[in-house]
Automatic annotation (TrEMBL), chain A:
Residue span(s) of domain B12-binding N-terminal: 1-88
Domain B12-binding stretches: 89-212
Annotated protein name in UniProt: Methyltransferase cognate corrinoid protein
One of the record's GO molecular function terms: cobalt ion binding
Lineage, highest ranks first: Bacteria, Bacillati, Bacillota, Clostridia, Thermosediminibacterales
UniProtKB/TrEMBL annotation, chain B:
Sorted UniProt keywords: Cobalamin, Cobalt, Metal-binding, Methyltransferase, Transferase
GO cellular component: cytosol
The protein's name in its UniProt record: Methionine synthase
Family according to the record: Belongs to the vitamin-B12 dependent methionine synthase family.
Organism this protein belongs to: Thermosediminibacter oceani (strain ATCC BAA-1034 / DSM 16646 / JW/IW-1228P)
Start and end residues of each Pterin-binding domain: 1-262
Single GO biological process annotation from the record: homocysteine metabolic process
Length: 212, 266
């Protein structure tokens, strides 16, 4: 019989086929969807996050693990009537700001947040302020996360915050920023509520935001 | 191969701190080291300072030009910072960058016309990041006539095909190589430049990928790199690759560089 440990390992290996098979097998044999997610899929992706942080795993591997995780999650939610059992810790709208096409970091943060129980709406890359505004209205998130990997586009984080303020939405959400050239000082200057230097820290900052 | 030394960039933490502290000695030293190692141009970027960027840029251009004789590459999308950088620069500067995005084009073009710098032009327009050789050529076909019309000769245009990380797209490097060949064919006088290290983002032992890619770029006809001139192996390979690609007559540059200790095997 398939085990949750094997499922976690399959996520770690980035083996999508294996993840789908094991997930099916576990659900069929009566393991609860919650356990499949928490002790299988998420246990695997947590390990991925840890290894990535320590430079023991690299971007292409992480992307494969993320794809495997996604396939497993979709299967659980589809095949289980108890998808609602998965509690949401909070809702996050996430995007790479206008002009910036680099989404590795943003994708990692989305993945880490999802694996930690947040509901994430990923708006993708090159997200214009209007699109952030629209998403905040539609999804009413607790948090808006923005990434920029270039010094040339980080300024658009401020533009987006200003646009949210102008639309009267600034006080309805917490705004967190991240990306290679971004630091705490910059986050303070542009009026963000928080900054995280890496994907693991982003989860902590999101938790703190909702607690406080 | 024209080398634009990339190290004075405010997205690097040590540089952000040095700029914050106005650490003149540190920044001058880094500029000198890059020029001594073979950088023909020194890139300067202080974009992290936002509203204060023009002020920091003015100071930075001043102190770096006190330290080195090579031209500077004013690296900013901020028009005010670009203007102050160009106006403060003695001699002819390079700018990084203009693109075919409507807003950036319209804002930067007057500065290009006024100062006539060497120009790095990104192969991107409002349709977004290019995904194919055709995308890049289409943008180049807009950029080159536009810049020539603004008074820039083709010899002073450096087209950047824009490298994506290999770790995300397996064909990222090949696309750039094919674009380089196509551009050199169509516009033999125009230069092709790349930010070399973008190719290795997210992968282990990045320098090895950067070095291998530099050799491949040289073969494809790229003739300028934004790179780390303090990587001696990279610089050695660039001299070797240029000779092997038939762009170093009688291998004289290679020999000269080896005499000067700039080509090393270990």
């Amino acid at each position: 019989m398939a085990s949750l440990e094997e499922l976690a390992q399959a996520v770690l290996d980035g083996d999508e086929t294996q993840v789908v098979e094991l997930t099916k097998s576990l659900l069929t044999s009566g393991v609860s969807p919650k356990d499949v997610i928490d002790k299988g899929l998420m246990a695997g992706i947590d390990k991925v996050g840890e290894l990535f942080k320590n430079n023991e795993m690299f971007v292409p591997e992480v992307l494969l693990s993320a794809a495997a995780l996604k396939a497993g999650m979709e299967l659980v939610l589809k095949e289980s009537q108890q998808g609602a059992e998965v509690t949401t810790k909070g809702t996050v709208v996430m995007g790479t700001v206008e002009g910036d096409l680099h989404d590795i970091g943003k994708n990692l943060v989305c993945m880490m947040l999802e694996s930690n129980g947040f509901k994430v709406y990923d708006l993708g890359v090159d997200v214009k302020p209007d699109k952030f505004i629209e998403a905040v209205k539609q999804y009413q998130p607790d948090i808006v996360g923005m990434s920029a990997l270039l010094t040339t586009t980080m300024v658009n984080m401020k533009t987006t915050i200003d646009a949210l303020a102008a639309a009267g939405l600034r006080d309805k959400v917490k705004i967190l920023v991240g990306g290679a050239p971004v630091n705490q000082k910059f986050a303070d200057e542009i009026g963000a509520d928080g900054y995280a230097p890496d994907a693991a820290a982003a989860v902590e900052v999101c938790r703190k935001c909702l607690a406080g | 191969m024209l080398i634009v030394g990339e190290l004075i960039n405010s997205s690097r933490k040590s540089i952000a701190q040095a700029l914050e502290a106005r650490d003149e000695a540190y920044l001058k030293d880094l500029a000198k080291k890059q020029a001594e190692a073979g950088a023909h141009i020194i890139d300067i970027n202080c974009a992290i300072f936002m509203e204060k960027e023009p002020e920091v840029m003015e100071w930075l251009v001043g102190i770096i030009q006190e330290a080195v004789d090579v031209p500077l590459c004013i690296d900013t999308p901020n028009v005010a910072a670009m203007e102050v950088g160009l106006s403060r620069h003695k001699g002819r500067a390079m700018i990084n960058s203009i693109s075919a995005e409507k807003k950036r084009w319209e804002e930067m073009l007057p500065l290009v016309s006024k100062y006539k710098p060497m120009v790095i032009a990104l192969c991107i327009d409002d349709a977004g990041m290019p995904n194919s050789v055709e995308d890049r050529l289409r943008v180049a076909d807009k950029l080159i006539p536009g810049l020539v019309e603004a008074g820039i000769s083709e010899e002073d245009i450096y087209l950047d095909p824009l490298i994506k990380p290999l770790g995300v797209s397996g064909t990222a490097a090949v696309e750039v190589l094919e674009t380089t060949r196509a551009l050199r064919e169509k516009y033999p006088k125009v230069h092709v430049i790349s930010g070399l290290s973008n190719v290795s983002h997210g992968l282990p032992v990045r320098k090895v990928l950067n070095r291998a890619f530099a050799v491949m770029c040289a073969e494809a006809g790229m003739d300028a790199l934004i790179a780390d001139p303090l990587d001696r192996h990279l610089m050695s390979l660039v001299f070797a690759a240029e000779a092997l690609a038939g762009r170093d007559k009688h291998c004289l540059n290679y020999i000269k560089a080896s005499r000067a200790g700039k080509v090393v095997a270990e």
